[in-house]
Amino acid sequence: MIEISGFGKDYGEFTAVESLDLKIEAGEIFGFIGPNGAGKSTTIRFLATLLRASRGSGSVNGFDVERNPMDVRRSVGYMPDMFGVYDGMRVWEFLDFFAVAYQIPRTQRQRIIGEVLELVDLKHKRNDFVNGLSRGMKQRLCLAKTLVHDPPVLILDEPASGLDPRARVLVKELLKELQRMGKTILISSHILTELADFCSSIGIIERGKLLMNGPIDIIYRQIRSHRNLDIRVLRHVEVAEQIVSGYQGVRSVEVDGLSLLVEIDTDEAGLEAILRELVEANLGLYCFADLEPSLEDVFMSVTQGIVN
Ligand SMILES: Nc1ncnc2c1ncn2[C@@H]1O[C@H](COP(=O)(O)OP(=O)(O)OP(=O)(O)O)[C@@H](O)[C@H]1O
Ligand SMILES: [Mg+2]
């Protein structure tokens, strides 16, 4: 659905993106993660046909970004990282403006505007001035704008930045809804937790280089040669500690009250053996959790080149 091959962008002497290859399948939510200045917006603007590549090529929905920009624009809903100012425009006029630009027939425009406003929970602001909206509302309006022409692909540059936690949850729910509607979504962020629960795949970019990309579970597995276990018992934590410490591959065991936090290199069979011995020791074992690394862990280990 989205394909980039050898994309690079130089600004004068400065190379913002070196050479980037990326493939995003239809129906995926792809999280594009990287710190400030990594090259996310540069790559996104290229896909949105707003920036010329210094090298390489890209295609969206089967259309070449540089050779068929009009077809790409019809296929993409793009949400920029900055919201433009539209003096004296009302919410519905703002959406109507884009609907006209996308050549949506007059007879359908009112209905569509109603639908997208409903989707972003702004129906009650239909006749308000855009300038008078709060930042979070502007953000949601901007998201509504990307949906007006019902594109199969959404490219969203930090859609949740500057939003309060409640608005963030709203945006998240909305993105999930859009995925259910069959959209392919590329979303950038430097807030990792924002993407963790709903991205199907991620790419990590730093200083114009894609350090890693793929399905989120495979990325987790790749960076994960050791596991963190959260073990809790009702009594005799010292016995639990002794049992666990006897296993091969244990890196550390931390005791906190009646809980153990264990770092260990092992596989599923190894975990099963520990679990069985703990149960048989009759310590009131009620929790044995193999903790998922957080996206922060992934990001830190990848960007520092330290894979632990
Ligand atoms: N028009 C421009 N002229 C010169 N340099 C630019 C231009 N646009 C971007 N850059 C540089 O290219 C690099 C990548 O910028 P980009 O906006 O793509 O980063 P980003 O990953 O989107 O960062 P952020 O998280 O801050 O939005 C930065 O070092 C930036 O300073
Ligand atoms: Mg950016």
Task: Explain what you see.
This protein starts with a strand and ends in a 5-residue tail after the last helix. The chain is elongated. The longest helix has 16 residues, at about 165-180. It has two domains: about 1-215, Rossmann fold (3-Layer(aba) Sandwich); about 225-290, Alpha-Beta Plaits (2-Layer Sandwich). By secondary structure, the protein is of the alpha/beta class. It has helices at about 40-45, 70-75, 90-100, 105-120, 135-145, 165-180, 195, 215-220, 235-245, 270-280, 295-305, and strands at about 1-10, 15-25, 30-35, 55-60, 65, 75-80, 155, 185-190, 200-205, 210-215, 225-230, 250-255, 260-265, 285-290. The strands form three sheets. A six-stranded mixed sheet has the order 6-7-8-3-9-10, with helices on both faces. A four-stranded antiparallel sheet has the order 2-1-4-5, covered by helices on one side. It has a four-stranded antiparallel sheet with strand order 12-13-11-14, with helices on one face. It binds adenosine-5'-triphosphate and magnesium ion (MG). The site of magnesium ion has 4 residues, from helix 1.
Describe the protein's topology.
Layout: E1 2-11, E2 14-24, E3 29-33, H1 40-47, E4 55-60, E5 63-64, H2 69-75, E6 76-79, H3 91-101, H4 106-119, H5 135-147, E7 153-157, H6 165-180, E8 184-189, H7 193-196, E9 201-206, E10 209-215, H8 216-222, E11 227-232, H9 237-245, E12 250-256, E13 259-264, H10 268-280, E14 287-291, H11 295-303
Parallel strand pairs: 3-8, 3-9, 6-7, 7-8
Antiparallel strand pairs: 1-2, 1-4, 4-5, 9-10, 11-13, 11-14, 12-13
Helix pairs in contact: 3-4, 4-5
The structure holds adenosine-5'-triphosphate (ATP) and magnesium ion.
Residues 11, 14, 16, 34, 36-42, 81, 190 line the site of adenosine-5'-triphosphate (ATP).
